[in-house]
Amino acid sequence: MKKPVLIITALLAFSLFSSTLFAQAPAPAAAPQASGDVVASLTSSDNYTALSIAIRAAGLSTTLEGAGPFTIFAPTNEAFGKLSSTKLDSLVKDNAKLATALKFHVVSGKYTKADLIKALGASKDRKTTLKTLDGETLTLSVVGGKLQLADAHGNTALVTSFDLPATNGVIHGLNGLLLSK
Model-level pTM? Predict the structure, then answer.
């Protein structure tokens, strides 16, 4: 009688152990799928409604709906909220000025988070530069463990989110705007 009880106990223990040991890890979350071009992706995200409206007002929709690829360093709604009302009014009233400011945030080419990390790792000073649509230079560096963008005018912003996909590029969120002084 003891032998069958021992065998059953051993089988139960083995089955509990093996189900835990061989259980599959949950599948990683699927990468977000592109919901359209960069303008459509910005429009479909609740974080970028101000930028989406600004792109249309500045007349940049046609360009950014094009083939690309583009990397958008996109100021969030919160970033727009940090602007003084005077600065915001001056941008809204002058579409050319608004377009120039927005082009500071757009780079030709698709640079995912992995691409940016690789570029930073390949440089001796852990900095890399990218050219904006208007030929301005953005300098990317790691500051306090976060990716920081700096423009030629001394403005800086931190990347707060990465890799919102689009059919013609990728979008990274910023906590500020890069505006000429």
Answer: 0.78
